[in-house]
Structures are given as structure tokens and as C-alpha cells.
Amino acid sequence: MKPQQRWSAEQIPDQRTRVFVVTGAASGLGLATARALARRGGHVILAVRDEEKGRRAVADLTAEQPDADLEVRHLDLADLASVRSFAERLRADRTRLDVLVNNAGVMAPPRSLSAQGHELQLACNHLGHFALTGLLLDLLTAGRDPRVVTVSSVNHRQGRLFFDDLHGERRYRPMTYYNQSKLANAVFGHELHRRLTEAGSPVRSVLAHPGYTATNLQKNGPTGLWRVVLGRIGNPLFAQTPARGALPQLYAATAQDVAGGQFIGPDGPGELRGGPTRVELSPAAADPGTGRRLWEVSEELTGVRFDFPAQV
What we know:
By secondary structure, this protein is of the alpha/beta class. It has one domain: NAD(P)-binding Rossmann-like Domain (Rossmann fold, 3-Layer(aba) Sandwich), CATH 3.40.50. It has helices at 28-39, 51-64, 80-93, 120-135, 137-141, 174-199, 216-220, 225-238, 242-245, 247-254, 283-286, 288-302, and strands at residues 19-23, 43-48, 69-74, 99-102, 147-151, 204-208, 263-266, 276-279. It has an eight-stranded mixed beta sheet with strand order 3-2-1-4-5-6-7-8, sandwiched between helices. Helix 4 (120-135) crosses helix 12. The longest helix is centred in the middle third of the chain and has 26 residues, at 174-199. The chain starts with 18 loop residues before the first strand and ends in a 10-residue tail after the last helix.
């Protein structure tokens, strides 16, 4: 994939007969992802916290494309009980899942805790997606060209995993803990690839990031100065549209030449804008010891163990 040959959503292959789950699909990157996949014939399950907002999104998408194959299901990634309920319902009426797009997230809120007492950004952005992926792994294993696409951020390169203070009890800073959660996404996607490969699984784990994209994350998540800098100044001046920002995760989810373990991001300066291309993980994200440690902690915090298929 060369920068001068920029990939666009029009190049998504025919997705008829394929089933997608997109988390956080009621707005922003998730909605743009659902729209593009539906246009190519995919059956898209919009996994959303606010079902009414999800139904409005489906109504808008259907108005644009009357034959769009869409459904809305409730999922609150910050609540592990909701994650388990979503997975149980999906397993009850689906025998396979082709692509899981771990897209939803929250950004830089005041310190708050999930239903299980975990720091909210870690809970929603990482732990919920870790648990969801593990609980749906058997459906993915039965899928056609199955993939897990985990959406990280260019900010993962600024992140640290505070294993001695994961929940910010002693030193919480909103953006610092957002960066931690985005590093956790990157570490998880990379470690998942390693474990899937070791197990001989057909499922590909691919990472993506949207660069600097104007979404509700910057408008509604941060407070104080960060909301002004990101939402009111940065978005209008520098950010690309959700349709453009979603291209890396769409490429990761559908392009035929994507390999497990790859990281797809924008090809422009600083990876902030542009068409999708392969980019590099930070050394911290690719560190095997960090991957194993985060995996063990995530199992402990979620109670989810991945059942990797045995090699035949």
C-alpha cells in the first residue's frame, strides 16, 4: 500500500454474507464504519450504550440506503455484566461472527469508576473490549476471514501502563490515563495476535488508529482546558472527518492484504491525517513481557479467559 495510491471506502470488497459487530457505532468513527460496511452489503450490528441514539443512527443510515442490513444491540463496555449479557445474546442467535471492531471509547473525563470499580477509561476502552473479544472468540473462529480490529490511537506512544496504580487512585490525570488506555489497546491487539498465531487460529488480530479525527470524544469527554484545546480549537482547525478517520479501521477489517499483527493508521505527517497505511507500534506496545503482564491483569480484572482453539 503506497501513499500515492490512497485507499478509499469505495475499494471495500463486497461484504454480503459477512457479519460485523462495531462497538460505539451510534456516532463518530463507529457510525462511519457501520455506514461504509453496510454500503458494501455487510450485516452490521451496532453495539451501543444508548439504544435510542443507536436506533436514530439506523434510521438515518436506512434513509440513505434503504436496503442496509443493520441492527442495534445494547452494550455498555464499562460494565462487565453488560458485556457478558451482550455476548450471551449474540451467541444465542448467531453461529458465527466475521469481524469484531473494538472501536468505542471515552476520553479524559474526571476520574470515575465503572460498575466493577475500575477506572472508567481503562474499563471502557480496554477491559470491556478484552472481555468482549474473549467471550466471542468461538463465534469469530467459526467466521469467514475472521478478524478482530482494535482501535488504538497515536497517543499510545505517549502512554505508560501504571501497573502499580492502574485505576488512578494516587495520581489520576485525565489525559495521562486516556493515553494509558490507548496503550493498553495496542498491547492487547499485539499480544492477541501472538496468542492467536501460537494457537494456529484463523482469526487475525489487527490494530488501527484514526489519526486526529473530529468526534464526540473531544467535544464531550474532556473537561476544562482540554475540552477547549481539543474540541473547540483543534477539531475545526486540524481534524479530519469521521469518514476519513474511519478508513484505517475499515481497511483493517476488509482489505485482503492485511496480515495479523499489523497496525494501520493515516499516511500523513505525524500520522494525523491521510489515507490508510501500515504504521509502527511503539516499543512499549510490542514488548512481549508487557503483553503477558497486561493479559494476566486483564484476565484477573474481567474474569474472562480466552479459549484458544487447539491446533489440528
